[in-house]
Fold these 3 entries.
Entry 1:
Amino acid sequence: MFEFFGNDKMNARNYFGGTGQAPEFRQNQFGGSIGGPIRRDKDFFFAAVEEMRFINGQSFVSTVPTQYQHDHPGDFSDIGGPVIPSAQQDPVGLKYFDLYPAPTGSGTVNNFQYHPNQTQFITTLDTRIDHHFANGDTLFGYYDYNPASTYVPGMLPSKSGVQPGGGIFAGPSKTTSQGVLVDYLHNFTPSLLLSLKTGYARINIQTQNLNAGSNVSSSFGIANANDPGLQNTSGLTPLYVIGYGFLGDSIFLPIQNTNNSYQLQGSVSYVKRDHNLKIGSSLIRRQINFLQTAFPTGFFILVPLPPYYNSLVNLVEGTPLEVERQNLLLKQGVRTWEMGGYAQDDWRVTSKLTLNIGLRFDLFTPLTQSHNQYANFDPQTATVLVAGKTTSSTLGVKTDYTNFAPRLGFEYQVFPQTVIRGGFGISYFPQDVRGEADNLNPPFSFNYSAFFPSFESGLPKPVQVDVSTIATNPQVTNLTYKPSNYTTGYLLQSNLFVQQRVRQYTVTAGYVTNKGYRMAWDTDSNRPAPNGPVASGTPPPPTVYAAKLPHVTGIDTTTTKGVFSYNSLQGSVERSFAGGLRLNLNYTLAHSLSNTYIGSAAYAIYGLLPSKPSYDYGNGALDIRQRVAGFAGWELPSGKDWKGARALIASGWQVNLLGYWQTGLPFTATESISPGGGFGINLPGVTQDRPNAVKGVKMAAAKPSLAQWFNTSAFSAPALGTAGNESNNQLFGPHDRRVDVSLFKDFSIRESATLQFRAEFFNITNTPNFAAPNNNITGYDANNIATQAGGFGTISSTALNERPRQAQLAMKLTF
């Protein structure tokens, strides 16, 4: 049995937590496990239950209108802006403007702090039963049940019963996961073993937006945003007001997602002399049933357009740059099979040399839809093909039968205390994830976008479109295309290590490399090449399919033109447990390059030039150049020879120290643009691109600070109709580091029972780890050099999942 307890009274305040009462923090984690025989030497059971109750006060920093602007709606003269006459003020824009709270601080950037609670309540239940047969066979069954209830708050406080929104996936969520596993082992002979496994896993995710159930958009005056006849369209339409706090419900919400996975595995192991042979196979059936799109109630984008270059002014005037809407008209039921087989041999060639030789084959079938409610764009005919009618159930995507993956590893003992190890292998993986699985096309989805809309004109009503009308239907503005050769990606992985034993220390040094090919690279196949440099005000060039599909502005296309590389030197020193002390220290020097996103793509832009994937090549999104990590554990020798009360107090103590330091994650400077404006790539549908890097000017700031993390003057506006020359991910965020300390004390109650006390301190030095800075340019000076308008280059929050010093106390009873 155990109990972990944490409280804000023991914790430090977030760096951006301001003054006054600290954000609330409550953590209670408790549970227990029990196991034992049911029938002696035949049947055994194990059961465990755990409860997690978590309340964590957030520290949000946003940019909101000044107090003067709140007191004088439409008057932006305090920041050198215009005074908008009442007759020109948009009623919908004013209602959104009024959702902003009054500032809590001075200045015009990062002037509002808010500390709402994020809550999470989790139950974990695990059970297992083992049976031993008379012939030595074993059978066990396992079941786990894991319901979780989470509430993620918005970044702005509620106003007049409306949640202004902001944040990532803000709203209530319920997730329930369950799993069953049955495993059977049979020994034909002492050297021949059969293993059979079957399993089932189910995950049910139901996440709502903050304003779910209320038709706030309709009450604000945005027609058709809330459609009572269509699921997942209640709430408040989101607005991206560049340079200011996000308004409206979070994008990509609500989520209805139920996943089922069925799995069979079997293997046979055979040991003969110097060989340990193993062959096996697996079969997985995946069912993904979901109803989720990016913008079910629409999405307006407001950028700092001329003549005022202020997004907030455009909000009050009601002049957004773009509107988008995505709706699934029917719940999707995606299906796929995964099959694999392998053979391997661990061969002890000599007393010093061991080889691992293997071959694996994997087959991943293209996605299908349970009722063929799936469609794909055909670039040859400029038409939409429907699964099961005008194309195959896989949308024409072919199965790849060439995924053979050889693997070779070795271990050679050079000297009694010196070993060399190395290996090479190929791994294949499916890429039909994220938006590629959706493939949003009529008649099963509604996908619309338009430039220079108005709030009053509202949004088009999502309707099922006849695919034969896409050439003339003005509501068909966005399509998706998955090529027939959209196949599996693969990684070439290799490593070589030398390990030396020196007394109680083990020193290891080596090199690791990964090369990725045929990886997903997303673009827009309807996007033309840039036509610049051209004069200011020149409209964008026509789209590729303008003649055949005049209303279609974008065709989201997924290709396999992505590449990835990772190279690293790695070293470690480990001290075996001796004299109550154990140590481990490791270091990695690495570099990653890619033209696609591995992990998060939040701070980069990809696919701007469809015919030039190399334009996106740069540092990888997870390019952590250096990392040092260490651990030390010491069982204190005090009190071992004492007895009575002195021994009870002084003996059984253990101190643990865990720490790491690593360089920051990379990111890209971006710029907000308007097609036909004064600068930027000037392509249809593109509202954000990359700037030019000023030649000879260093991007790094002389003295990086939260007010200016990098040299914002290192970027300039590209000529209209040209692509900026900045490579992806050339800037790096703040370093990340932390030291944790724990103190354990064991109390021996009797021979079969021990009570353990724990005091654990996370980030004991209370060192703040900062998030990446604001990377979006919203203004240039007279010389076309980027300014810090809108907070460009500033840091206003700590890194996600990085907290100030926290302490927790625990008791654990083992008997």
Entry 2:
Amino acid sequence: MPTDATGKVTAARLSRDAYLYVRQSTMSQVLHNAESTARQYDLRGRAVALGWPAGRVHVIDVDQGRSGASATDREGFQHLVAEVSLGRAGIVLGLECSRLARNSADWHRLLEISALNDTLICDEDGLYDPCAVNDRMLLGMKGQISEFELHTLRQRMQGGLLAKAARGDLAMRLPVGLVYDSAGAVVLDPDAEVRAAVDHLHSAFRAAGSAIAVVKTFRAEGLHFPARHLSGPRAGELYWVPLRHDRVLEVLHNPRYSGAYCYGRKRHRTNAGGVVRTTLKPREEWTVLIPDAHPGYVGFAEFETNQAILTSNATARGEDRRAGPPREGVALLQGLAVCGVCGKRMTVRYHHRRDGSPVPDYVCQREGIATATPPCQTICGSGIDAAVADLVATAVSPLAIEASLAVAEELTQRAAEADRIRAVHVERARHAADAARRRYLAVDPTNRLVADALEADWNGKLRDLAESEEDYRRGQGHNGVLTAEQQTRIRALSTDFPALFHDPATSMRERKRLIRHLINDVTLIKAGEHITAHVRFAGGQTDTINVPRPLRAWETHTTPPETLTIIDELLAEHTHDEAVAILNARGLTGGWRTPFTVASLTALCKAHGIPALRERLRAQGMLTVEETARQLGVSTDTVATWRRQGLLTARRVDGRRSHLYHPGQGRPPLHHKTEAADRRADGLLSANQLAAQLGVSSSTVTRWHRLGLITAVPVEHHGVLYPDGQRRPTPAQIIAAGRPLAYRHQQLITGGQLATACTSPVPRSTSGTGSVSSKRSPRTIAAGTSTAPTSSPPTRPRSPPPGRPPARQPQRQGRENVRPARQDTTNASGGTHHRQGRQPEHQQGVQYEGHSFVTRS
């Protein structure tokens, strides 16, 4: 090794640490190329020889087994660059520059940082200063050579792989279901259960034509799909998992299951973050494809057919996508409808009726989306679907027997195949349980550590066996094998294809599959009140059908013209409420098939311009009550009164008792106006006349009439009239009539009467008490005792209101202050007036319903 360190190893650089970077590209090199590893560690002696103490020489070897093509996942290299950036490294040592980096970007980044921080680079050939131009150029050339060397090695190995793959001899990882035999040839898996599962997947796709339908089939039959561990301690071991959609696509897209050898199907790219992205190449970019290179589960021709089906099912691919897989929706022409205006495929939308049932709509909106214009056509599919179904059922009826028998045979075969798979699974579980039992019985019982592990394994296998047997028994109950009754039913339906197609047990998916075997596409054109459908059958035959345009929502809820005519005739002589009663009696309904109401009939007439009875009578010249009142020079109330008395003629025009009056009517004759005098001559008075006669108000007269204190005579148009000569009721009669019926004939007094009695003087008795009998509910009425005399001035008595008798003033003794008491007087109508007075102090006591209150004299 040259000793050109003179002038490069300075005191400033020796004051910092030395870093030795050790790396091997693979773990195999680490284990087997020990000499190279030892040579790298020996560079510590070079650092010591250059003057760095051994304790300050740091070895970074955490990147063992990692490639130098990138620094993304190399923690040791990143740590080294960080130490150099922080100015802690005086020298960086490596066996050769390829150990540090095989990427020019990483290598030159390290050189730039080392030059900025005055750090030396040392390898097996010499010592270099990145700040020196010649050393920098030499280091750059070494980095380029190292990167080119990596490319050369990769090309050399890749060329050998491609040559071997072109012959079909390159061994690759096989998918589950294929294995290598002892001679290195690809054969089907000897495990019968694995083969049955793979066969069942392809047969299910062959029957359904959809990957998701295969997943549903496995789930419905309770089947699992095999898989193998790819790495770890259990690498290559078989296990079973529920089938997933992505796993179905992986199996169907893999040509190895068709017996074809392929290489270069995938492209691997590494992004800036070091993450590897894998994508599938198109068929024309595959490196090697050799059909029929080894045994397979399906033929290569069927593999090509499956790829075409999967491509057509991918509804998101391409602008003019073809018919996707049959779905569960009720749109029979899903994927088959073609716009007759622009020639593009029509998509399906759904709207729902009031009962919740979906109705398909075929919409041509691709051009509208692209150009922000309205869709070409929007066609309701309810009528066109039924017409196409009838056409197909009529056209293919001679083939009904063969189609039905094929369906029955397919169902039987699928049920038998699923049953065989479950039986093989049970047999495998039983074999595993027997093997675990033999291992447990062969172990020495005294070796409990081994015996316990074998016993636990045996118990686990027994549980797996029990679960497999339970799945087998459960599957036999729903294995799809046709019973005698079902076979008889199929034979009966086989002679009637329309019944088979319209059978409620036939799902929409199956109906669409039948349609697609017979029809290529249906071109739809909406013109006026009809929809034209040009049906193109698979054999090239075409047919054209015309169906009426389905009614729109507002059209289905439109009242029939016949009903509108009847309504117009009824409103010529009847009001709205009368017309509603007649329509409902005849059983006629509106557009929503509900009975008529006044509000709904009014809205319907307004929408269709049908005039009401008021408008018709006004057009004939009839007058309103206001116009009639102005014409006669009276008030509207007087006009209404004359109409009720039959003095004016009118017609009712609505349910609110509004009327229109015939024109040309005059004021009633004089003898009709003197009707009040005639009634007076007959001895009948109105409420106002009797009130004036008795000196009370008319409301008091009405109240006395309700209490039965005066009599009245009912009279037409006037309610009641009162006979003349009736006397005014006494207060006692009024009070008794106003009491509840149960207390009307008992000797009771009111609270006002009691208060009046309390304010009158009561003579002193020998016992000092007086009593007033009462039958009211017991309660105590206490009169407050007097207080001590005060010097407050006497209160001026208030004058009573006009028409009310003056209240009796209480006698005062001295200047004692007493509490005011209520004094009641009875008015002429039986009511009671209350006023505040003063409690007399000379009363000794009053008995009221068994209780007494005492006042001080």
Entry 3:
Amino acid sequence: MSFPPGGSLAARMKRYSSRWLGTLLLLTVVYVAAGKLGLRFAFENPSASPIWPPTGIAIAALLVLGLDIWPAVLLGAFVVNATTAGNLFTAVGIASGNTLEAVVAAALVRRFADRPDPFARPRGVLIFAAIAAGVAAPLSAIVGVTTLAASGFVRWSEFGGVCLTWWVGDMAGALIVAPLLILWVQGGRIEWNPRRLFEALILLVAVVATGGLVFGGWVPMSRKGETFAYLAAPVPLWAALRFGPRETATAVAALALTALHGTLRGFGPFAQFAPVTAMVLLQGFISSISVIGLILAAAIAQQRRSEAEARRLNEELAARVVASTRELQAASVELSGSSERYRTLMDSAPDVLLVADADGKILLANARVEEVFGYGRDELIGRSLAGVIPQGLHGRRRDGSEFPVDVRLSTVKLATGRGVCAAVRDVSEQRKSEQALRESQAALEETQRQLAQSQKIEAVGRLAGGIAHDFNNLLGVILGFGELARKDLPPDHRAHQRVEQIQKAAERAATLTRQLLAFSRKQLLQPRVVDLNTIARDMERMLQRLIGEDIRLATSLTPDLWPVRADPAQMEQVILNLAVNGRDAMPGGGTLTIKTSQADLDAAFVSAHPGSSPGPHAVLAVSDTGHGMDATTLSHLFEPFFTTKPAGQGTGLGLAMIYGIVKQSGGYISAESGVGQGTTFTVYLPRVEAKRADPPRPPEPASPPRGTETVLLVEDEASLRGVMRETLQGAGYHVLESGTAEEALTVATGHAGAIHLLLTDVVMPGASGEKLESQLRGTRPGVRVVYMSGYTDEAISRHGVLEPGRHFLQKPFAAEVLLREVRRALDVR
């Protein structure tokens, strides 16, 4: 039983409880009334009746209403037995047995019989009878009689007889009353007509008359033998044949009441026996005609349903046959004029259609064959299908040329037997489109790969740019104080070498920082118009010493190479790193080639090499004859920290730095390699409109220059400011220092003498170095300026300090570099 729908949960539970209680009370009253009626027939023991209607009522109620109504059975059975005989113990024991009987029967029938009507098929009737008679009824009898014997109401010597009477009484109640109630509750509405009503009245008269003749004592023969009772069996069988299970159950119940009433009065074929035997025979008779009648009724009802379904299917089939016949007639009319339409349909097909017989000889072709194959349709008649489409892989035109085709074959029925229809489509354009699509997909994958690499480089670049300023300041302090300490120590002092190692470690850290900024394209470049040929020639001697004697260095430099704009020091670094990579790839010796050329990159090149730009470019190529690389290694070549060298022999930043320098210079770099075929790196730098390269800087003096001028030093990092102050003072300069732009203006105002040079950090708390210069020139217009910063190119460019003519120092820098740049700025005229 489920909650009724609608309303809140509390309201639904309340309605459910009210309905359940009402049903339970009603079933209890019905059970008690039926029990009192059944006990009126008790003859051997006050609690053992020859037919026990409450058993059938309880099983039917639990099957129809649900198992949760079992408390009504328990309460009704307790009331019946408590008000009949015995004591409270016997009433509870018998009630428990009756309840257990009903619950077990209902649960097993629900599990194994047909639902919701177990009497719809013979199998369901047999299962119900077996469970009710063979399982549930014995269970109630054993529990009930055991309770009576334990209470002293039945002697243990009488246990078998009383138990048998109890069992068959419950069995009769289950097999007669339960089917009657279930079939009338779940049965549909009765459709009466005069003929059926008349036959039902005759059946009623037959039941009464048969019961009176056999069990009513109307004729003296009724006591001649127990088999005489089965003269009444045709009546329920008649109900089964002419009506149905419901009417059969009704006829059996009426006949059972007549037989029970007559036998108890001493009439009928069973009255001649002892009471217990008479009741057992009577109950067996009633149960057998009930089961046989219900099985026969279920079988006939099932047959009627099958016949009705067969009639429905026959009617549906007949209707379909009629409809199909009409369709065939219409198709026959249509077919008479379809030949021309068929030819028109074939000619309008987008594919070539060829019909051939079982031997492969072409019988029919449509008009498309002339356009695709070059044959007239009549020319192909009688030719072999295999000669036109060999092996179904390609088509062969009349001129002998072949082209890709898509062939679909289907079987057709011909007058001479089965044949084949070939639909042939020229897929030349499709194959071209597929090839173009594959190429586009490959280009897209390459673009996605390069985008992923670019995003990776950008992420690391942001990290490098974020820490570059503070890290460069720290390195500047280490380098500066290390150099000052080294100068103060004699060369033979044991701490002298330790300070040198500290300086070397700091220089390597500074190099690593520059590499990080290089591949992320955030390092500070000082581009000039340069000639790549000049850079390559100037590096030849140094490169030969670097790569060793077992590797031959070859150069092929194009005369009058287009100039490019790049930082010459960084381009030297590019050539140097590529040469070192080539040397490491040739451990057994080989040839390293440096080649320059010119190329005008077109749209096709740019499309095939994402990241490049069209236009004239100067080209620098560095090739080696080493062991080469596979495709997987090539795909990761420019990624930061990727290296194929053993641990401790490379940082994985060399090629990434080259990539960053080239991209920051507006160029493009590519690599071509194969296992055992060597490697070629090609750098493309855009041509600049200039007649010649910028002149090289004059050589630096051998020793750091000195001076006596006044320098205003502005640096917010106190430690680094101390290093630079000592360095400048050690070179003879007079130094005024401050930590902020505001403090520097105050110091300048309070200084009566001249200030020859402003040495300032670019980015500081408060005002920037550029703003400080502007304010200082208001009072000291002739002051020279040298900027310095540990920030990246992007940050410095926003302050405009990289404009031509300005002096700039990238942190960290050595003392000699500081002194030379200060002297250079002071000496400019």
